[in-house]
Amino acid sequence: MIAIFDRAWLIPFSLLLWTVNFAAGQGMEEVKLINSKINSVNTIRLTEDYEVFLREKNKILILNEDGLKDGNIWLSYSDLLSIEDFEGEITDPQTGKTIEKLKLKHFKDVSHISEGSVFEDDRLKYYKPSLYQFPVEITYEYTQKIRGNMYFPSWTPEGKPKQLVEQNVLEVIYPEKLGLRYKTENIATAPNITKDNGEVRMKWMFENLFNLDDPEEDSVALVKIAPKAFSMEGYAADMSTWNGFGMWVNQLLAGRAELSPQAKSTVGGIVDSLETDREKIKALYRYLQGNYRYVSIQMGIGGLQPVYANEVFEKKYGDCKGLTFLMKSMLQEAGIAANYTLVQAGSDEDDIDTGFPSNQFNHVILQVPVEQDTLWLECTSNTLPAGFLGDFTMDRHVLAITDEGGVLLKTPCYDAIDYNQIKNVSKVNLLGNGMARIHQAKELTGFAAQNYLYAQSVLNEKDIQKYLYHDLGLSGAHIEDFELRVDGSKKVPTAELNHDTFLQQFYQSTSKRMIITPKFQSVDSDLLGNRFMKWEERWEILNEESVELESGGDPVQLSEDFFDYAKEIQFADNTLTVVRTVNFHFPESTDRDTMDKALKKIAQLDNQPIFLRK
């Protein structure tokens, strides 16, 4: 089968790469940069019985050892995607002699199981040539068949880095009565379209393209294809609208929500004493989190159809589809309507193309309308509170599957400081010879608390302590005692950590002065999933020696495009007090590099030594 949910599915047509035109007048120095040359013809044919045939013919001239990887061949297959034929050969272009005939029996065959998956039927055949004399030419062609026309591969005319594309052709052939849709990105050329005897042919041709490096994702030249009328495993619908796609998913869900008397009794026992829908939703969600295990299962109709809700109830595990559908079924038994919802998940994933209805999803969550509001449930998490999604599925368009069909909605963006806060209060006693003992109280809210919720839920005490060493980032530290409390019962998760820790090297001391640099918490861009954060640090450092502030105590006040920074330092009664606050406010679509640069600047502002004179 073709695994769609819980990981992306790729058909090996070609890599999606950005290019520049390769001009014929370029000098020899630039030509030497070429590792390989390729001529490629790709044909996508849709038949009247909804089957899709993918035909690819490649001729690749390998010029040097660096280009050898451009001759690698990857072929996926599964219950829904089959390899119909393959032939190829390796030849010496200077003599025309055949070096090796390529057959599928020469390919390695491996299970294509994604991380965390237990049940999956995708497999992969691959071939990597081992050659030592160049140039050499690899020619091959193959056909794949997809049962059902829900999925079409995207296509790019571009080659791999340092590969000259002499010619790349895409031809799409389909019955006019079934229809087909396409959309191009970063391509100005319209296809050549012809019609004959009820058959439509669309053709793109590109020549002399070259790129030196991997592209920026938004620069890739791309042709995307999607069906109008489509069918898979006997389930048919119209995908030209989101509503039509949702009606098709409804067919997959039909008849699978029925719960056994035992399951109904369990639901009743949980909700019968509760008054409001919110209370019932949260109680059933906590029951799901506490009793069911997430396991990726890439089986069923294209990885799209959940197993029966009662089967998940009995087995106590399921994938995102199964757990979400069980939660929907339990809510239905409690008299609460909820919508099975498709989403393109991933903290770094772009939003779907809302103007091009097609299957762009890899995950399922649950949308529960309640009291002029919505509770979103991530049913694969055993730590997130009801109503809080985290950066895996936040701030993106999703397709809610209602009784009337698909409806585009958008998940919360959490674009406020209230959803991401760190407050650390550290009291330090200097012990001499650079050593110190610290008592620290940490209060974490929202995104900042997620890792601690996970640690408390999944790790044992020893492993939690290992995580604390990693998170605190204090060198030469020995945690003597700690207490971690987490709360996932509210709309926004919280965590509180108190620890007593011995530090072997906290400061420097000479005969004339002490040098102290407070060790603020380390924050990376992973903690800025919602682009906002309030981060407060207060350090009170007590020294029993008689000293006075010499330098490094000037206040800092800075406002930039992405953050506001303030630091104040006071010294009284042999106690050095440092109060530092940062408020992050990154705009939408800020990339990680920009965040990392801002965090690096914060680190530079933080890591300023304070000098105390003895």
From TrEMBL:
Coiled coil: none annotated. InterPro entries: DUF3857 (IPR024618), Papain-like_cys_pep_sf (IPR038765), Transglutaminase-like (IPR002931). GO terms for biological process: proteolysis. Keywords: Hydrolase, Protease. GO terms for molecular function: peptidase activity. Residues 58-209 form the DUF3857 domain. Residues 266-377 form the Transglutaminase-like domain. This is Transglutaminase-like enzyme, predicted cysteine protease. It comes from Echinicola vietnamensis (strain DSM 17526 / LMG 23754 / KMM 6221). The lineage of its organism: Bacteria, Pseudomonadati, Bacteroidota, Cytophagia, Cytophagales.
